[in-house]
């Protein structure tokens, strides 16, 4: 499911033009390519998938540069990324120390062992605010993707993805805020509130797991129905 999310997230095109940061692009390209490649067992398939993702993100002078590389070198994802950064380093704007730190934080963003969802989302929101302050709003899609990949509860990430396929944001609405709200509502709904009651104590572990999954999807269905209703109301208004 996560690999399909990576496949639908569109990487911005690096053309080797002044003002484009090749290192930023390379970081995002690696994130997307490596995530999708994890779905393949054969090493040659993994390599081919990563190169394909890299080629899809190139344009202009950067694409022409790639075409001129030796045939065998064009099959080496890490080598091409390194040479690309060296070739187009002059196009890179000198970023502030804050942005450099933000990108390092971005690459390491994942929910830690024992860390609750609220704390994890607070860290992601802080990073989102930093990108906005640095006029890097184009990082929002990548941050949402990275945030969902780093979520320890994979079922929650899958449900959010399902919901976002039918969600239609209103003008001025932050997609990041909607995703955070979705994660919070789903997690809050299934987290145990206090000690189990007498009925829950007699359920087996498997019964409890099935029950939690039913509650999750019941909640998701309700949220989808609510959103569709709101969209129809707005359309008729």
How does this structure look, described?
The longest helix has 32 residues, at 205-236. The protein has helices spanning 2-8, 22-37, 43-56, 60-67, 77-87, 97-108, 117-133, 140-149, 154-164, 175-190, 198-201, 205-236. Residues 190-203 have low confidence and may be disordered. It has two domains: 2-91, no CATH class; 97-236, no CATH class. The protein has 237 residues and is mostly helical. It has twelve helices and no strands. The chain is globular and about 55 Å long. Helix 1 runs antiparallel to helix 2 (22-37). Helix content is 67%, strand content 0%.
Mean pLDDT value: 76
Number of helices: 12
N/C terminus separation: 36 Å
Outline = globular
Number of self-contained structural domains:
2
How many β-strand stretches? 0
- Radius of gyration, Cα only, in angstroms? 21 Å
* SS strand fraction: under 5%
Unreliable runs:
190-203
Structure summarized in a few sentences:
The protein has 237 residues and is mostly helical. It has twelve helices and no strands.
Please supply descriptive tags for the structure shown above:
single chain; 237 residues; mainly alpha; 2 domains; 12 helices; globular
